[in-house]
Amino acid sequence: MKIISDDIVYFSKHTIEKSVFITLVKKIKSKVDLIDFITNYTDNKASHNVIAYRYRENDNLYLSYKEDGEPYGTSGKSLLNVIETVDLENVIVLVKRYYGGKKLGKALLSRAYRKGFLYLLGNDIRLENKINTLTARIKFHIKNINKVNYILSNNKIVIIKKTYVDKYCKMEISLPMETNLLEEFSNLFMVEYYNK
Question: What domains are defined for the chain?
C-alpha cells in the first residue's frame, strides 16, 4: 500500500483535440477531507468534473468514482483503475474537462483522463509505503516511566494518549503491526488491549 507523502494539491493541465483537461490530486484521510476537496475544487463551468478516490478511515476502505456524464468506464472508472493498480490509498483525483467541440471516442477519452494523473505520478507526486499499525493500551508503574519512554522513543512508537491513575500510568500507543515489542517488554508493562 502506498500513500502520497505531501499534503498539497498536485496540478496538471493538457489539451487534446481542443478539450482542456485539468487534473488535481490530493492526499485525503477522511470523508470530511473528501467533501472539502470536492466542494473547493469542482468547477460548475467545466463540462465534466470526474472524480475517483480511495481512502481508509477507522479501518474501513472507501473507494468510488463519478463519471459525470462521460461514457461508462472512460473517465472515473479509468482513474480508479490507476489508483488500484498503483496500490494507492488515501487519495482523491479530480479531472475537470472543458469540452473543445470534438468527440474523442472511448479509447482516446480514457487515455485523456488518465494522462494528467499518470504524469503527476511519474514526475511530481512523492509516494511512500504505508506502514500498517496497531493501537495498544499499556499500563505500568510510574517508577518505570523513564524506561518506557526510552523504549517507545527508540522504537519510534507514537503515544496517542497518556493518563495517570494513582501510582500507574496508562498510555495508548500506535506501533507497527510487525513488532513484537509488546511481548518483549511484558515484564515492564501490562497490555490492557490491542486493536489491529
Answer: 2-129 (3.30.230.30), 133-195 (3.30.70.240)
